[in-house]
Amino acid sequence: MPRIKCHYADCVFVDEGYCSAAAVELDPDTGCNTYSPSEEAVKDDGWDEEEELDELEEDESDEDDDGWLDEEDEF
């Protein structure tokens, strides 16, 4: 039986770096369709999309967006 090296650290099928699923379905565009995040990974996700977007918008507003236009005029 072939062994498949897996780089998903949070998948329930990963056992010591190798996939332990009975069957694996791979898609060239999306990757492993057998991937299932472990319950620990889902709980520890901590991703709050609204909070992340607010921080990103704040960071962008601090920057001078038109600064690159002035650089082009110098050539």
In short:
The chain has helices at residues 39-43, 49-62, 67-73; strands at residues 14-15, 18-19, 26-27, 31-32. The chain has 75 residues and is α+β, with helices and mostly antiparallel strands. Strand 1 and strand 2 (18-19) form a beta hairpin.
Describe the model.
The chain has 75 residues and is of the alpha+beta class. It has three helices and four strands. It has one domain. The protein has helices spanning 39-43, 49-62, 67-73; strands at residues 14-15, 18-19, 26-27, 31-32. Strands 1-2 form a two-stranded antiparallel sheet. Strands 3-4 form a two-stranded antiparallel sheet. Strand 3 (26-27) and strand 4 (31-32) form a beta hairpin.
What brief labels describe this structure?
two-stranded antiparallel sheet, two-stranded antiparallel ribbon, 3 helices, 4 strands, 11% strand
Secondary-structure blueprint:
Elements: E1 14-15, E2 18-19, E3 26-27, E4 31-32, H1 39-43, H2 49-62, H3 67-73
Antiparallel strand pairs: 1-2, 3-4
